[in-house]
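Supplementary notes for students who missed Thursday's class. We covered one full example, reproduced here. Read the sequence, then the structure, then the short commentary at the end.
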Amino acid sequence: MSKRVLFLSLIGAAAIGTVTAGGLALASTPTEPTLEHGSARYAAPSDGSAGSFTYTVDVSDDSGIQGLKVIAWPASSKLDPTEAELRSGENAKCRSTSDETARCTYTLKVTKREAADLAKGTWYVSALATAEDGDTTFVPHATSFDLTR
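Structure (token representation):
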């Protein structure tokens, strides 16, 4: 066998091996949604207007984002919601920023009367992201914030 034929055979085998390995790597690495750059903010109600709690996060998945469920809860309650409980959580509004990423924002208005009943101190946000392909990611402590009056 000539050196040229042997060299071309080795290149062909390497190319086939690379394509096969790449295909296996893609097939074996399913992705789940990721949450990045999350932040929470509480603004107490004033005499003339309602207060609010807002949680914003960038959610990404290779199939796109279907939605995000959110629950905010006081650390003092020891609540610690599960993924199953979060499925009935509040829906955030998600706006696509690319084919794979959405910026999701959850806002809750808080009246002065409601604020008076809220526990002061540290609160946590739990989040459940769902991708278009059905994959989910549950983050029990996506972020925290302090609620003051």
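Commentary. Helices lie at 3-28, 83-86, 112-117. Residues 1-26 have pLDDT under 50 and may be disordered. If anything here is unclear, bring it to office hours.
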